[in-house]
Recover the amino acids of this structure.
């Protein structure tokens, strides 16, 4: 044995790795399996448990990937590669990073505890440089396809400087993840965009959470991948089995296993040698070659042979991975056993199974690990620690320091003349982008827009006409060439700055997630803008949450919104999106009524998307034409618009009423306010540009106050100060009324909240506002009720 492993270069692809490397990898595979199992055991059985709750962790799911991940991280991956790890294989990931010295023992001991290694790999919460968070199955997988598109986008535009190496975007996925429809949506979208350098490695253990996967399913899956332009490489049987197949009557054994139903194969895996022997004797006992095998192998040997699948056979894995050339997207279907090497291997109920202390003691013994050596990186391995240490240090993945990239900020020197003529906010958005598109600025260069087949109807058309559509291949605009008149110019090239997607909203959010992480992933900053119909945010909601959870930065434009979209009917009218805007972490939501507010918010958004403590921004816009206020946007007003609220008409001191509105219902609020002035001359009219930001700021203020900082005040609290202590607030929004009803407790005043609480339907604005009670009359009725209720302490 050499004291130091030699690098991979020069080793023929078919060999996968030289013998020294293979020995190191086999030793590390054992260690990784041990550490992951121990980490989970420690969290469940050793660490004090204060609440009696099962801590959990997935020993079986982890073991399923121990060989594949060892091969990848210690041999194959390069620093520029980016990986989405199967969520429940998180312990394997953390164990590998621990061996690299990129994760601490304390974190492993704290697995699933506060501040410890996360249950599922997390970009923002883990310290060991997770590339893509995972957890909600299917999303991390699809994310890699979009990340590869973004890598090409920034490379083709020359944003990455001195051509850094192109990385592979790798997803390690469970086979049951393929039940998630978003994966197939991504496959189609990836095919359209001709993605490259994407590897999906399916941990084909034929088990999901509840049960064993339907037989023959994978023949279909295979077809789907090939149809969408993927190369498929199947890793089925390990070297030992292949050798036996090559011997006398070996083909019959292969056919037997090939035909073995998934459930039976899993059950026999659990039962072990005796079970295999009984079935083989019954089915093939008369075949001479098989009889000889049954005679040659004892139970343990027979079990090891029959469970020798390629996805857990280091030599086969290396051969498959290192044999791949070219950049076409590649799917590896790797046969594995869930729980391989552990007592519950193959059992259909093993997903959340944990080894009990006795089983763990036996496992520890089999690993050759003494008491107190559990966290030792090399204990129990047959190879000298220095050899393994040198091998780990030399792994290509580990050669660079931090793999998290940084990127310079894009200066936002934005002078936008907001449209002054009557206009909907959606039009104003389109016009502002159109104006930016005409400028030769870094901002214009780094904006990239995307939309799921609603580019034109969300007013991105002007921007696209000026900046073009991105595509790896140049495609002319046939309508234009044929001189067919159209307002849209849709030529495609690598210079384009709009990525046109199919309708699938999940893909939009994954695209935004990938674009919005281009700084940490690829070292160059993009300012992504995604536009879709507001109600369909819900279709991609988990993907939006996923993008936010990873701290991707983007501007989301939901337009049109609410029942204001009147004739389009109920299926197109969003009601709860303002609440999504408020409830979603890392997403600042705005609903401006006027173009000058929108211009201020957009400029701020481009800064917020780049700030260390910033986030993404959501604009809920409308197609309703509103007359624009005649005013100058002073710095003070700008600050208030961004804080989320300002007095359109300030109240008189001690006024007993204020009307509070957000967004497209401004004219109704204004009309009601004008009318109420006859009875209540001092009534105020408050515009809310962001219920989200006013709420957050108020909630921070009271938390500070509850901790003794008595001077803590919120913007909204200060704004409402002039009102009489027992004044009433009437709020109105084209969305769920609870968006603004919290203002009552925020200001300790009675609140009457108007909004939409039932599904919308088709109609015109007048009819619908009347029907749902958000027109001027309804506001006046609420004002009357508020005045009548003044001074009465009891609620309804
Ligand atoms: C969107 C979503 N739905 C449900 C779950 C709960 N869940 C976790 S793992 C899993 C299935 C695991 O099967 P597979 O992907 O084959 O992984 P394995 O453990 O077999 O490797 C399920 C349903 C989840 N994490 N995400
Ligand atoms: Mg599975």
């Amino acid at each position: 044995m050499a004291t130091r492993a030699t690098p991979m270069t020069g080793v023929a692809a078919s060999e996968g790795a030289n013998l020294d490397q293979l020995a190191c990898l086999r030793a590390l595979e054992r260690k990784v399996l041990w550490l992951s199992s121990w980490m989970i055991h420690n969290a469940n059985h050793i660490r004090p448990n204060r609440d009696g709750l099962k801590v959990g962790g997935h020993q079986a799911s982890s073991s399923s990937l121990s060989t594949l991940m060892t091969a990848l991280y210690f041999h194959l991956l390069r620093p520029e590669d980016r990986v989405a790890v199967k969520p429940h294989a998180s312990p394997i990931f953390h164990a590998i990073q621990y061996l690299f010295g990129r994760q601490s023992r304390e974190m492993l001991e704290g697995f699933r505890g506060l501040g410890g290694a996360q249950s599922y790999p997390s970009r923002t919460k883990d310290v060991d440089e997770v590339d893509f968070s995972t957890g909600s199955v299917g999303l991390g997988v699809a994310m890699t396809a979009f990340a590869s598109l973004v890598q090409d986008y920034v490379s083709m535009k020359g944003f990455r400087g001195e051509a850094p190496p192109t990385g592979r975007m790798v997803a390690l996925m469970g086979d049951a993840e393929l039940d998630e429809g978003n994966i197939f949506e991504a496959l189609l979208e990836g095919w359209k965009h001709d993605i490259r350098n994407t590897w999906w490695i399916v941990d084909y253990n034929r088990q999901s959470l509840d049960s064993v996967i339907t037989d023959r399913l994978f023949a279909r899956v295979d077809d789907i991948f090939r149809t969408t332009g993927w190369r498929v490489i199947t890793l089925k049987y390990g070297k030992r089995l292949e050798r036996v197949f090559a011997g006398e009557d070996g083909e019959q054994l292969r056919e037997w296993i090939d035909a073995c139903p998934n459930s039976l194969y899993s059950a026999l895996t659990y039962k072990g040698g005796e079970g295999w022997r009984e079935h083989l004797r019954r089915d093939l006992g008369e075949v001479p070659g098989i009889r000889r095998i049954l005679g040659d192998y004892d139970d343990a040997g027979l079990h090891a042979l029959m469970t020798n699948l390629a996805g857990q056979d280091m030599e086969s894995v290396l051969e498959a991975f290192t044999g791949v050339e070219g950049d076409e997207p590649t799917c590896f279907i790797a046969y594995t056993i869930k729980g391989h090497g552990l007592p519950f291997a193959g059992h259909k109920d093993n997903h959340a199974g944990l080894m009990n202390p006795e089983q763990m003691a036996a496992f520890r013994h089999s690993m050759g690990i003494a008491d107190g050596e559990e966290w030792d990186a090399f204990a129990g391995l047959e190879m000298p620690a220095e050899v393994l240490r040198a091998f780990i240090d030399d792994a290509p993945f580990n050669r660079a320091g931090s793999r998290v990239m940084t990127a310079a900020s894009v200066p936002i020197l934005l002078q936008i003349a907001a449209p002054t003529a009557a206009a909907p906010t959606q039009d104003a958005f389109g016009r502002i982008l159109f104006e930016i598109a005409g400028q030769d600025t870094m901002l214009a260069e780094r904006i990239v827009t995307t939309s799921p087949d609603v580019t034109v109807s969300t007013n991105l058309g002007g921007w696209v006409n000026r900046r073009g559509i991105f595509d790896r291949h140049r495609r002319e605009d046939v309508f234009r060439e044929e001189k067919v008149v159209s307002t849209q110019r849709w030529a495609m090239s690598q210079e384009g700055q709009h990525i046109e997607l199919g309708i699938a909203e999940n893909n939009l959010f994954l695209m935004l997630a990938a674009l919005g992480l281009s700084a940490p992933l690829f070292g160059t900053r993009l300012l992504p803008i995604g536009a879709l119909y507001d109600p369909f945010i819900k279709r991609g909601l988990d993907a939006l949450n996923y993008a936010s959870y990873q701290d991707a930065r983007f501007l989301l434009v939901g337009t049109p919104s609410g029942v204001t979209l009147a004739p389009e009917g109920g299926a197109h009218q969003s009601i709860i999106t303002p609440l999504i805007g408020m409830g979603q972490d890392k997403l600042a939501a705005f609903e401006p009524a006027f173009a000058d507010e929108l211009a201020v918010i957009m400029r701020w958004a481009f800064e917020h998307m780049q700030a260390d403590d910033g986030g993404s921004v959501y604009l809920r816009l409308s197609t309703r034409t509103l007359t624009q206020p005649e005013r100058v946007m002073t710095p003070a007003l700008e600050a208030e618009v961004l804080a989320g609220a300002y007095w359109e008409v300030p109240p008189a001191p001690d006024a007993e009423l204020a009307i509070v509105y957000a967004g497209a219902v401004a004219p109704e609020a204004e009309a009601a306010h004008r009318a109420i002035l006859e009875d209540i001359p001092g009534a105020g009219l408050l515009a809310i540009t962001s219920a989200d930001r006013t709420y957050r700021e108020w909630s921070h203020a009271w938390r500070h106050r509850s901790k003794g900082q008595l001077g803590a005040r919120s913007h909204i609290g200060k704004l409402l100060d002039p009102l009489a202590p027992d004044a009433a607030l009437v709020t109105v929004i084209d969305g769920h009324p609870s968006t603004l009803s919290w203002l009552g407790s925020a200001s300790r005043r009675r609140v009457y909240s108007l909004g939409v609480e039932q599904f919308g339907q088709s109609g015109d604005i007048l009819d619908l506002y009347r029907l749902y009670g958000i027109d001027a009359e309804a506001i006046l009725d609420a004002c009357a009720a508020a005045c009548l209720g003044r001074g009465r302490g009891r609620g309804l």
Remarks:
- The pocket of magnesium ion (ligand 2) is lined by residues 174-176, 205, 207-208 (CB under 6 Å).
- Confidence is low (pLDDT under 50) at residues 1-15.
